[in-house]
Amino acid sequence: MTRVVFIIALxxxxxxxxxxxxxxxxxxxxxxDSALETRAREISKGLRCVVCQNQSIDDSNAEIARDxxxxxxxxxxxxxxxxxxxxxxxxxxxDYVLLKPPFRLSTSALWLGPPIMTVLxxxxxxxxxxxxxxxxxxxxxxxxxxxxxxxxxxLVDQEIDRQARSEPSAIPASELRRNDHG
Length: 182
What we know:
Layout: H1 2-19, H2 34-45, H3 63-77, H4 82-93, H5 108-134, H6 146-166, H7 173-180
Helix pairs in contact: 2-3, 3-4
């Protein structure tokens, strides 16, 4: 029991370290003014790294993310407010750079695509399930009705007669009929 407690005591700090968010801001990027740095971090958390998959520039180690972080800090040092900085970055990179882009015609696919795809996926699953539930098991064959059986027998007899006339066989046609319909 003491071993388990000891192992947990060792692993708990490691899990806490692993759970902390990754921040890619390098020491040479940090502003001396803590208020400006706080604003820069706030802005950076809302901007998407354009080469990463849905990662903010604050969390990304990509070179373009570093350039964007530096750009944000430069704009703040020029005296711009948060909205002006964001507008500047959006003007250069488009709405895609925003982690939460505004709803516009140009961004409608970003907003409507996931719910539409979800509804379509649900419909596909629903109709597939319904069709599977209503279908016969694989390999199930309905027996022929007596009328269909008579028609099939007549067609087989015609085919056997046709083949017997065109190719002489060692087995007489009457014998073939008797063995097939036995």
